[in-house]
Amino acid sequence: MENLTSEELFERSKKVSPGGVHSPVRSFKGLDHAPVFFKSAQGAFVTSVEGKRYIDYCQSFGPLILGHLDPEVKEAVRGMIDTAWSFGACEYYSLELAEFIIENIPFIEKLRFVSSGTEAVMSSLRLARAFTGRSKIVKFEGCYHGHVDSLLVKAGSGLAGLAAASSA
Q1: SS3 55
Q2: Chain centre to alpha carbon of residue 97
Q3: What's this model's pTM, rounded to 2 decimal places?
Q4: Nearest to residue 6, comparing CAs of 37, 33, 32, 41?
Q5: For residue range 2-40, what is the model confidence (pLDDT) as tens digits?
Q6: H or E segment at 38?
């Protein structure tokens, strides 16, 4: 990796990604500086390309609840690498995890694994609408509820970044 600053990396990134970011959530439109680019992480900390250490309050928006490079998770991942990477079909491992979760959390009767927060929100909305028979939802204006058009409308989070038009 080149020895570049976050500012330099952001300038490069704007040439290949709308607004210089891969998600509107990472857009720093309201700030007067580039987003911080990170090069490594351990536990609850991330380290910028400039070598500055930060507490990571984000934890990848949920998936890293055990922190970065948790030793037990790291070992489990290493153990699976030679078995499979991704199935895209029914498989034993997610079934076993679903049974474990349901057995240990009494109020969960059934669950579905999804690949992103957006999919989780979309599935939750479908379930809520089917269960209640209602079509309207309440959401917090200006907050990010996933990258789906019906939730980005007027939320202020649909912009693709600094250099993008509001319709991007």
Answers
A1: strand
A2: 21
A3: 0.70
A4: 37
A5: 789 999 999 999 999 888 887 766 666 667 788 899 999
A6: strand 38-42
